[in-house]
Structures
1.
Amino acid sequence: MKIGIGCDHSALDMKEEIIGHLKEKGYEITDFGTYTKDSTDYPIYAEKVARAVASGEQELGILICGTGMGMCLAANKVKGIRACVCSEPYTAKLSRLHNNANILCFGARVIGPELAKMITDTFLEAEFEGGRHARRVQMIMDLEGKD
Ligand code: RB5
């Protein structure tokens, strides 16, 4: 599975941990930056990963900043993106099963690396259930064209 990942300066170490973990599991990872701890702006990386997921170039995305929130807000501005912030595995699993989320965000200043790995594994292994959830997800996506 092809996964796009991005972070800002606050989450570089966490991103490296997650990349190593996912590569060991056989995922094909594309790292969209940032690549240093120099202060930078999270919307840059949110947009890169979100566009790659929206175009189908990457199947799912992972975005990490201090809280996960800035990344999530920015990614959700790109058409076709359903990004969510998850700090525990239950929400990560349901965000895939029911919401068909396509980008996982979390905060490097909020959770530790082992919990982050568990959340990431849960998100990537869960599959959208469809059915009544497909109708609701479509209603979300229809909001994109309403303004
Ligand atoms: C950067 O200091 C911080 O604001 C950012 O990583 C993120 O938490 C924003 O949502």
2.
Amino acid sequence: MNVLVIGNGGREHAILLALKKSPKVDKLYCMKGNAGTAQIAENVDVDYMNIDAVKNFAAAHPEIDYYVVTPDDPLALGLVDALEAMGKRCFGPDKRAAIIESSKAYAKGLMKKYNIPTAEYEIFDSYDKALEYVRKKGAPIVLKADGLALGKGVLVCETLKQAEEGLKEIMLDKTFGAAGNVVVVEECMKGLKYTPGEEVSVLAFTDGKTIVPMITACDHKRAQDGDKGLNTGGMGTFSPCPFWTEELEEEVLEKIMIPTMNALNAEGRTFKGCLYFGLMRTDKGMKVVEYNSRFGDPETQVVLPMLKTDLMEIFDAVTDGRLADIKIEWDSGACVCVVLASGGYPLSYKKGKEITIGDIGGCTLVHAGTAVKDGKLVTNGGRVLGVVAKGETIEAARNKAYAAAENIKWENMYYRKDIGIKYREG
Ligand code: AMP
Ligand code: GLY
């Protein structure tokens, strides 16, 4: 099979690296890709947000058998619908199902209707009403811009003053653009043992009939050590989550995952692909923080290296609706990904800095924002590289990843030094 992966980031490189191991796969393509994907796939320079351009490409390339649509934006735009209408086989939800990520208000309404545990909330399209509600509830309180905002449209406000300012930013200043026309105001959930609460990302394969959770991962969304600084797309991950147990997995399957799959079916929005559950272990049990309609980034970078089963076989089974027939197996060790970022990220940063790479031991470099310019590897984004290490334990994997990170350099590079430490006493 010839397979094309849509997207440019570390997640897409990680998916390509996993597909490359499959005996079923002949040739890989990536639209548009980066310098890392170019090493194992043919990069295709087509704008995947332009559905007609992708359709034209697909029509001109009948040799491509399978499309993996990964980022949230083309999913929300209906790229899977367009490709399937041409008879192409795809991994990823159609537009109707992708709404579970593209509208937080929709996702909250679905959870309310089907009794899926999540934080209490109200939705507003009026700034005055939202302000009145925020003042009534007081802090801490969480504000979320309704639409897609690159993972940055969520404000966890410790004080009422912060909440008032945040509401103004979202709804009046439109810092997140049209995503802020509607705001979700949520109760701030408390973790069972930690504040802020302990979070886990559980990605799941589903064909709409069966849902199979993958190995768990923990993300680090803030830019600085100790979960300080601004929210980012994710500064590192580790797998598995230390506090995860078989009992928790059963609770989550029974109370969250299966009910979500069934709810989407009941709403005529059957989801096929990777459904991402952002969960929090609270003093009142496991609750949903957010859904994503796709693989997480940088969760995928630590989850897929742990997968023993052929990823292409799983993709095929999801597309054909026979996920129940295959057994999905995982390694018993651990995996850590440390993201190396451009100085200034998640705000403004410079691109085009030359990257030098020394000894990285047995680690894998997953490329995110990289490019080749005049024969040299250069930075081309905020999150540039992920150093991925496997080990018997998180500690072993973490030491390996940090040893390699020290041998990678460019002007103003930075990374968090505490990936893989939290929740250790679980
Ligand atoms: P999201 O983009 O929805 O994942 O939110 C970003 C981050 O905000 C989450 O990873 C949590 O750390 C935090 N967060 C979101 N909603 C809540 C909530 N209701 N209570 C506490 N923390 C939250
Ligand atoms: N790592 C969080 C996300 O992919 O949204």
